[in-house]
């Protein structure tokens, strides 16, 4: 796309009509910066948010006191230190877990998984702590909710298979960092909601809206090109080192 | 020219046809700087709108749904509605209203923008006609002002300056009145088209008199709803039908009895579609009852309400390609109905219904999380991280990118539960460019255009050569900054009474401090780049930028000094202006002329801060230039001019538009309002 001409660009004949349509749409920088800032704040990247406010010449949203606590809680959950996380959440606001049994259960189950992981590290380890924790903490909750019960049963079956290299995908799922990440982000959302702010970052909704809209438009038989590229891949970011470090190495 | 042939031209054509006297609705602007202006040719009053017609020329789903409408008397052409606004009615613009349930919707925003543009075009027409040529009257300059963004857009278009709102295609207006030209003769329309009354003889059993509205219900609304109040059922009857019909349906029958005609009848409470045999539906209705009629275009169903109560779905499988006009019919003398197309609050809580629809769709979108997992190679979080990372790098937010990277890294490490996954700290060559770009952007955002020019020429000499339009804009911006400075100074010395008050000194000090602060933040960040600054020597040497020297002088001298400085600055500014004009005098591009003209209009004011042109001087005006230059540099480096995140937003908006055109779920989504703010 050359920018050297002043004239209004006409669509090249090879370009899909829809391509021209979205090229014609103007996205305001202010809006995009807002979305980015909103993401940094609500997902807990305080240092980046601070720098961004400076560099983009925009207002740092009112110093939201929970951000540091949220970063710590996230860190604890990611590291598998669920006890600390639960304590910190309760320090912040004990209501959060009281009013959201599903979230509490998800955290406890994560704790159970960590326990199982530790207790099955070698063939000779003792699994009594696992059984104790499961029966005292999780069983009473699971009794009241079919979904909890299913989750608990699935989790406990790890005991049978671990340690193992070949797990069923369903069980493998439990050991992946993705699960921690999911729970951590649910906790983050719950904290934000409890503080009366919008729970989820705009960015997430935007990404989903984009997918939803494309799916719907294709369903409705709109005239769209086969793929809608946003040009993320061709331009390597200046730090893609982290990109592929996710997900897989923890299982091994 | 013809591609840019604008809305305004169409409007003026129609106006000329309708009003006769309006031969030149889009006047060439005559002004003090008319030598710069391309005074002969009619400007595209609103390039933004002009594009709508471009788009239409190619393909436009709306034109297929609405435009196909049979040449009916009211919505006879895509632009037929233009003449109904404004000029056709005594030159007064009719009150624009947004029905409560459509407030905040994308369609309402678009329509409002069209309305505003039209009002401005009219104001411009009046002001140029009433004020003597050669003067820059306030109103005409305020009209210029409103056009500023779009005239600038003409220059940029392909690149970055992205205004939030845009018009893609002719926007279908919603019904506003009963159409006196689309009724059966025995029907009378009064009270600004709100009241419809049966006059004359009672009709035979099969005959009646109906009336349609000026426009069909726009599918882009998602849900459209209107109400009528039975003012009088007449002497003996209550043979009243409320509903909607296609443009061709004959008007001598009660609605509901013909193909493409649908209605709810007051005499028996039945609903009728396409035939004379009705089906049991709701209660009868009579004098003082309020009957509402709505269509949900997403589901292609219609419903009615009575006195605020929902009566259930009456019709399904409405045709997607017929424009439905609100229609009422009656057959007894003195039967009278009064319509509410949204000018007043509704009896039925339609807002709630629309909100429910929106909530349902939002829930559906949240579910898209699952699609997300399937479609993206990584999960949502990783995808977003890539987006943010790429955006920060792309737009040159160096420090932010670094901090973000570190924080992500910490997060990953915690997640990985290992200490040895030391990701090398990345400091690629891209970083250097990013730093340069950030520096250039920072200079522009600080209003130091000279610094930005120097840096750009030092690091990316080809960019300004290849992008003359950006060069031009930077020059213009510099001029604006100079005017700004002059005005700042002049407002300090002029309005003050003879003994200068303490306040003025304080404000001088503050100003000086602000300037100093700004400069220091601009440079401190990258002191390793200081060398260049010193080499270039522009930073502190800019003649209009060194107001901080004289803080300690006493008030009298200060005053005189300022006065002198102001003189000097003004001279410099004027001189620069002349240079600027000379440099671009031979430029034939309309956009250039327009921008020059707008910029020069600023000089006309003693104190621009009090004028309507003031927003031009606001620091916000620096942002588009800065972003445009940034994009141009990126392009020169062989990168895409807009970041993936921007593309994603654009795509999303385009997709939602597609989904809104035919009244699909997109109609209930306002991307900007619901997702970006």
TrEMBL record, chain A:
It comes from the Eukaryota. SMART domains: CRA, CTLH, LisH. It holds the Pfam family LisH. Coiled coil: none annotated. The lineage of its organism: Eukaryota, Fungi, Dikarya, Ascomycota, Pezizomycotina. Residues 222-252 are annotated as: Disordered. This is CTLH domain-containing protein. Involved in the proteasome-dependent degradation of fructose-1,6-bisphosphatase. Residues 66-123 form the CTLH domain.
From TrEMBL, chain B:
It comes from the Eukaryota. Residues 127-145 have a biased composition (Low complexity). Residues 156-346 form the B30.2/SPRY domain. Residues 433-490 form the CTLH domain. InterPro entries: B30.2/SPRY, B30.2/SPRY_sf, ConA-like_dom_sf, CRA_dom, CTLH/CRA, CTLH_C, LisH, SPRY_dom. Residues 547-561 have a biased composition (Acidic residues). Residues 1-21, 37-71, 125-152, 538-562 are annotated as: Disordered. PANTHER family: RAN BINDING PROTEIN 9-RELATED. Involved in the proteasome-dependent degradation of fructose-1,6-bisphosphatase. This is Ran-binding protein-like protein. It comes from Massarina eburnea CBS 473.64.
